[in-house]
User: What shape does this take?
Amino acid sequence: MKNEPLFGLVKSLNQTEKTYFRKHTKRFSSGSLNYIQLFELIEKQNTYDEAILKIEVGKKHFSQYKKHLYEKLKEALRAYHSSGSVQAQLRNCICDFEILKAKGLNVAARKSLVRAKKIAIKNQLLPELVTLGKYEAILIKEEDNLQQLSQHFDNYQKTAIQVNNQIKQTIDIEELHMAIVKWNKKIEWVRNEVEKNQLMEILDSPKLKIKLENYEAESQRLYINAIGYYFLGAFEDSLAYFKEQREIVKFIDDFNVVRCVANNALLSLFTKNDSFLEEFSSLQIFNSSSKNATEYQSILLVLLKLIELVQRQEFEIACSLIRTKQQEIEELKHIVDTKNAMYNEFTLMSFYSVAAYLGNRKPKQALQRINYFLNNAQKDLKQDTYGIARILNLCIHMELGNWDLLEYEYEATYSHLKSKNRINLFEKATLEFVKTMNNTAAYKQKLSAITKYKEDLVKLTQVKFENVVFSFFDFKKWVERYEIIIFTE
Assistant: This one.
C-alpha cells in the first residue's frame, strides 16, 4: 500500500470524531456530496485500494473529491477539538481578538486578550506570551498611555528573556536525551564498569540536577534521569524519578501520561513494592483523547498484566491472556516493524510470553516466540537483549531435547556473543551449563550440572551488573522446573 495521507487520516478517527464529521458535513455542506461517499468507502477499507474507490465514486473528478474530503476532515477536526487542547483554546482567543479589534471593538478585544494571557500563564506558554505581548502593545499605543506602555515593555522584555532561557534549557535537555539514546542504541543495560562510566557522564551532568520551571523541560529532565537509572539496573532510583514525573506529566500530553503511569507500574513490579495495583488501575481508567495514546495504553495494559501473572507464576492464565489479546500483541509487532518504535515493550512482551509458555509446559510455543523475536530483533543494536534471547533459545532446545540441533545453536550463539564482546558472567555460566548438558548422556552428571548452574545463578543475582538479566527472564525458576523434567524422564 502506498503512503496515502487521506486513508491514514480517516483510519485515525475515533468513533465520536467520525460521528461529528458526518454531522458537520451535513450541516455546512450543500450540493453534491461525493466526498462523503468517498469517506464512507474508505472507512470500510482495511487497506487502501484506489482502483475500487474510482469505480464506486467515478474517475473523472476523483482527485478533487480526495482533496475536498481531506480538507473537510481537517476542518471538522479543528472544530471538534477547538475547545479541547490548551493550544486550541489559545488560538480561539487570539482569533476572537483579531476579529473584534478589526471591527473597532477594543474593549471586547482586550477581554479576549486577557483570557488568552490567563491560559498562557497557567500553562507556562512563554513563547505565546511574547506574541500576546505584541497584541497588547497595539492596544496600549492606541490608548496613548505612555506610562502603561513603558511598564508593558519592561514586562515584555522580561518575558522575552525568560523565553530565551527556556529555549536554551530545552535545547540542553534535548541534547542530553539524544546522548542517552545514542548510548542505549547498542546496549540495553550496563554490564561493566566501562559502560557504567559512559552512562554516568550523562547522568552526572549539572544540567540534569537543576529543577526546571517549564513543565515540558522538567518532565524531560526527570525522564532522562529515570531511564538512565533503569539502564543501570537501579530500579528504585528509576522509580523515584518516574514518580516525580508523574506529578507534572499531566500538563504535557496524554501519550506522556500513559507512558509515565506504565513506567511507574513496571518499576513497581521490578522492585516488588505494593503500588502496582494502584498504578495499573490508574492506567486502566485513564481516558485519553489521543488515538496514539489509547492504542499505546491498550498494549501496555496487556504487557503489564502479562508480567504480573508470570511473576506470580500463574502461567496458565498468562497463556490465556496471550490468546485473548492477540490484537494488541499484533499491533505492537506492527509498530515495531513499521515505525521502529516501542522496541523495549516488544522485548518485554517477547521474553515474558516465552516465560508464560515454558511455565505452562509449552516449549514449542516458547520456541516459536523466541524465534520470532530473534528473526525480527535488531541484532546489531540492543546487544544484551539479543544475546540473552539467543541464550534463552538454547535453554528451550534443551527442554525440547533437541540435542543434535543444540550443538549447532551453541556454536552460533558463542561466536555471536564473542564477536560482540558480550560474554559476561551470566553468559559464561549458562554457556558452560548448556555445553555440559549437551556433552553428557549420564543422568547423574546432568543433575550435577544442574545443581552447579543453580548455585551459579544464585550467586549472580547478587553480582553487580549481572542481576539485571533476571528482570527479563527468571532463569533460576526455569532451571528448577527443568530439573523436575529431567528427574521425571
